[in-house]
Amino acid sequence: MIRHLALFTVVDEKKAEKDALIAEAAVRLAPLVGQVPGLRSIAVHTDELGEGNYDFAIIADMDDLDAVRVYATHPAHVEAASFIGTFRGQRAVVDYEI
Predict the structure, then answer these.
(1) Burial class for 13, CB neighbours closer than 10 Å (0-12, 13-18, 19+)
(2) Confidence (pTM)
(3) Which of 29, 31, 54, 96 has its CA 20 to 30 A from that of 71?
(4) Edge-to-edge order in the sheet of strand 2-10
(5) Residues with Cβ < 8 Å from 75, sequence gap 6 or more?
C-alpha cells in the first residue's frame, strides 16, 4: 500500500477564512473514496501549532503506485485539486510504501 502525503500552505487568508477553505477542501475530497479506483482512504488535517508550519495535510492511502497515478489524473481529484489551487501557496508531497 502507498501513503500519499501532501502538505500545503494557504496564502493571504485570515485564520477563520483559512479554516473555512481547508474544511471545504475536506468536503470536496471525501467523496473520492469509492470514485477513484485504488483510493482506500483520504483525510485532511489542519496544523495545530501555526507559525512556520504548513497549514494543512492531505493523507491518502492507495493500493499501489498505479493507483497514485490514477488518482493524480482522475477528473474528480483534478476538480478538487483545482479548488485547492485557488488558495494554496507552497506544496510538498511524499508517496511512500506502508
Answers:
(1) middle
(2) 0.92
(3) 54
(4) 39-46, 56-62, 2-10, 88-97
(5) none
CA distances from 94 to 3, 4, 50, 60, 65 (A): 8, 6, 21, 11, 12
Closest CA to 29 of 86, 80, 73: 80
- Quickly count: other Cβ atoms within 10 Å of residue 10's Cβ: 21
**Nearest residue to 49 (alpha-carbon basis) of 57, 40, 41:** 57
How distant, in Å, are the alpha carbons of 16, 79, 93 from that of 66?
Answer: 37, 20, 16
pLDDT tens, position by position, 5-27: 999 999 977 878 999 999 999 99
Q: What are the residues facing 44 on neighbouring strands?
A: 58
Coil, strand, or helix at residue 67? Answer: helix
CB 80 within 8 A of CB 21: no
Query: What is the residue type of 61?
Result: D
